[in-house]
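Quick one - inputs below.
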Amino acid sequence: MTLRVYNTLTRQKEVFQPLEPGVVRMYVCGPTVYSDAHIGHAMSVIVFDIIRRYLEYKGYKVVHVMNFTDVDDKIINKARETGEPPFELAGRYIEKFLEQLDALNVKRPTVMPRVSGTIDEIIAMVQELIDKGYAYEVNGNVFFRVRADDDYGKLSRRKLEDAARGDREHYAEDLKEDPFDFALWKAQKEPDEPAWDSPWGKGRPGWHIECSAMVRKHLGPTIDIHGGGNDLVFPHHENEIAQSESCNDAPLAKYWLHNGMVQLSGEKMSKSLGNMVTIDDFLAEHDADVFRLLVLGSHYRKPLVYDDSVVEQAEKGLQRLLGALRPPVGDKTEGPEADALLEAARTAKERFEAAMDDDFNTAAALGHLYDLVKAINTARDAGVGGEPFEQAQATFKELTGVLGLRLQPKAAAKSDAEPFIDLLVEVRSELRKAKQWALADLVRDRLAELGVALEDTRDGTTWSWK
RNA sequence: GGCGACGUAGCCAAGUGGUUAAGGCAGAGGUCUGCAAAACCUCCAUCGCGGGUUCGAAUCCCGCCGUCGCCUCCA
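Output:
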């Protein structure tokens, strides 16, 4: 009944209670758009899509903001390499990412701001930080004075003293008062760098300030949920907190939620390691539900192990879920079997909610849905149909829908062949009637080789694409 | 070096103090079937190792081993 979420800030599960009853303000860090998105991005986006869907299922109105970082060193570098203007390049990858969100059945965030459209707000915020003594300007750059923020490190639980070698931004080391200070505004160095006028001269925002500015612009000083991959905890989210809370004198977010990383052959998948599977790669071979099932199969905070074997397992799991949607074979609407089915649907829904209420335990929730699959199959075998059967399937569809599964049977992409397959199936049925088993089996085997699976039921033969 | 997470059956993975340790995949046997397929039934783990706390621990504490993440851009 009560939703509890794990808060990175406090390192424990807390009862979820939004600031404004009935409304959830959620900000999730989006991608820097300079190359094809990979399944790690997909995981993050799907995790927060599921969280959003479940919050909506519970009756909340969710305002979901996800940013696009379209001003960044990597974009500038890539643009220099390829000769494509930085904004065109970024815009192209944004469009592509949006299409991939659709392909992955991710609900589009309510607002998707870009850095390039948030410059005024960023400049205003940087100025406020300077005015309050939390930032200082050097040669057209502005840095955040980390030492001025006494609770710096509270999210990642780092102390500056512990940072023996790392924990510092390497940009403009020689200009900073302190190596831990980080850039809020970077002065333009080359004429081909995107730059905007500011009180400190032409330049562009640092990485962290964009999110602080966007949160405030679209959701206000304090939000309910701030999300992202756990690789962003430090320094990105730590710095966001430092900027926003120093500037607004208010907590940035009530709950900090972080998803685990996709692991590929034992290590984190990332652009820098070059061990990437892009979203395009995956979707070229598999249904989007397969990837979602992979994400649902383990807890969102844990690393997601990715290899051929787990993909194959998810593929099979999807087939099993799809099996629950097949039509009934009987029309029994009363009796112990029908009662048992309705009871199973009730139980599944109850347990599903209990699991999801426990910090979005999708793996457990999915387990309860598999129990419902079995109950539906059993009822079908027992001849249950009509209203109770439809009701159980409707519950199943509703709950899988909350998880964002589409459960569409494999589309008949080769629809031109369908009449011919029907014909072959018909001929085979005649052969079976005539007990011409060898020929009938030949037809079945050859169709199987072509990707068509036959099933002989008591009501005749059905076929489907494999 | 600092901070943190994890280690449950052949594989993936829930469970974090107390009935028979969810679920999926794979495997074995069975029902159904002309034979299959699908479905259903049955079987298949004492929880990394060693101590400790407790009436009782996979679940808490300590140590060890192992894997991974962050500390530089990263979902």
